[in-house]
Structure formats: structure tokens, C-alpha cells
């Protein structure tokens, strides 16, 4: 007799790339930008501008990491999944989820921009729109298709924006 597989049910992924955890998509995008920065360096000419960018970037990074971490902790407390192709058990609508349906992605975006500022790098910022397009057009639709099965999601999604 075959062993039963335990764990969350999965929806069929739209793309094979959905097997890459979303935080790693942001990391990969940043690494590509970092490589472009190494090949074609773009730096401010003023050290005061560099210092200001570095300080502001550090603050942004901490804010973004804090937001993403808070959202992730709320998922852990609700005992639901943060994996895009796994079916969520419950709908989390409190905390930062009152303002955005995707506070983890908003937090990762803010942290990404913060990292670029802290390291005073332009190229990762220029790569970011491609990362966001991928998340917005490939990852989030799969998540939302799964969430439509949860009672109250239609009303929640009509009330709360996808991003901000």
C-alpha cells in the first residue's frame, strides 16, 4: 500500500519558476543588479550624497525587513502557509494586511531599495521593476487563485489593494 503524502495541498503552478521562494527572487534580482554595478559602476560624485543615501538606505532596509518579518510572523501565528502554490488555511486580514494584501512583498521591496541605498548602488534599483513584474504577474495571480477558495477573500480583495 502506498504511503499517503501529508502536508498542504498544492495548486498546479502556472510557471516552473514558482518553485523559487519569492525572497530568493528578490535576492537574485539584487545579485544581477550588483553584478551590473560591478561591470558599469555608477556612483554619486558627492560624498555627502553617498553618506545620505547610505543612512537613508539603512533606515529603509530596517523598515522593510521589519514589515516583511511582521507579516510573516502573522502567517506563522495563524498556522497558514506563505508558499505561493500551497493552499492557505485561513485569511489573515489584520496588522499590515489591513493596508495591503501583500505586506511581505511590500516589505521586501522596501528592504531591497534600502539595501541599494545603503550600498549606494543604482543598478539594483534599475533591475527591481523586473522583479516586481514577475511577482505581480506570475506569483500573485497563483496565490490569489488559491485564496479565492477561502470565504471572505472576495470582499477582502475588493477592500484592500494588492500593493498599496
Structural class: mainly alpha
Average pLDDT score: 89
Beta-strand percentage? under 5%
State the share of residues found in helices, binned by percent: 55-70%
Strand runs, count: 0
Would you write up a description of this structure?
The chain has 164 residues and is mainly α. It has a domain of 111 residues. The chain contains five helices and no strands. The protein is elongated, with a radius of gyration of 18 Å. The termini are far apart. The N terminus is likely disordered.
Quick take:
This protein has helices spanning 22-39, 47-77, 103-118, 123-147, 153-159.
Fold topology:
Layout: H1 22-39, H2 47-77, H3 103-118, H4 123-147, H5 153-159
Structural features:
mainly alpha; 164 residues; 0% strand
Amino acid at each position: 500500500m502506498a504511503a499517503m503524502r501529508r502536508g498542504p495541498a498544492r495548486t498546479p503552478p502556472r510557471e516552473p519558476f514558482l518553485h523559487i521562494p519569492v525572497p530568493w527572487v528578490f535576492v537574485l534580482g539584487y545579485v544581477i543588479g550588483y553584478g551590473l554595478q560591478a561591470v558599469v559602476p555608477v556612483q554619486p560624485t558627492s560624498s555627502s550624497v553617498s553618506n545620505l543615501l547610505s543612512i537613508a538606505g539603512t533606515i529603509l532596509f530596517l523598515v522593510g525587513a521589519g514589515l516583511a518579518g511582521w507579516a510573516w510572523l502573522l502567517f506563522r501565528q495563524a498556522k497558514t502557509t506563505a508558499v505561493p502554490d500551497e493552499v492557505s488555511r485561513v485569511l489573515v486580514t489584520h496588522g499590515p494586511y489591513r493596508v495591503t494584501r501583500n505586506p511581505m512583498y511590500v516589505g521586501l521591496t522596501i528592504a531591497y531599495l534600502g539595501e541599494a541605498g545603503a550600498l549606494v548602488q543604482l543598478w539594483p534599483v534599475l533591475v527591481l521593476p523586473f522583479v516586481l513584474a514577475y511577482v505581480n504577474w506570475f506569483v500573485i495571480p497563483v496565490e490569489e487563485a488559491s485564496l479565492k477558495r477561502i470565504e471572505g477573500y472576495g470582499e477582502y480583495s475588493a477592500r484592500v489593494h494588492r500593493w498599496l
